[in-house]
Amino acid sequence: MTAVLDTSVIVAAFERRESPSRRAVSELFEPGGDGAALSVLTVAELLRGAAGDAGLAERYESFIAACAVHDVTEPQARTAAALAGAADARDIPSRQRPGLIDAAVAALSLALGARVLTRDTGFYALPGIRVTVLPEADS
């Protein structure tokens, strides 16, 4: 099953030589791997984060080219708004709630029938999302 990648797991995979994020992302691209999907919003976050670092931007561009990149459709935007609203209604401190971009990533995962691969525990606040939260390092 395809995994929709959140920005946090991609950044961690690029920052650390050995990490759960790097291994999980690498496995998606191995023969027989499930492949990876990205929201166009994740692409924007990655490239914004690489601003001023041409080498990192080039590595991100190569990675993006290997993924299935999906636009945000109107139905997904509506789902994202509903997911974010449901998370906002929960008794969770605001800093732990997912933002609208995370909700859009989650909406893409629902549309694809995929899981979200992330390092952000805020995805747990989004109802109905299959999510795998990776640790920063091996325990």
**N-to-C terminal Cα separation, in Å?**
26 Å
Helix/strand/pairing category: alpha/beta
CATH homologous superfamily label? 5'-nuclease
Largest sheet: 5 strands, parallel
Shape: globular
> Which spans have pLDDT < 50 for at least 5 consecutive residues?
none
Estimated radius of gyration: 15 Å
What is the CATH architecture assignment? 3-Layer(aba) Sandwich
Extended strand count: 5
Return the CATH topology: Rossmann fold
| SSE order, one letter for each helix or strand | EHHEHHEHHEE
Measured as a percent range, the helix fraction is 40-55%
Overall tally of structural domains: 1
Number of helices: 6
| CATH classification class | Alpha Beta
Q: Largest beta sheet: what is the strand line-up?
A: 3-2-1-4-5
> How would you state the average pLDDT, rounded?
92
Q: What percentage of the residues does DSSP assign to strands (E)?
A: 5-15%
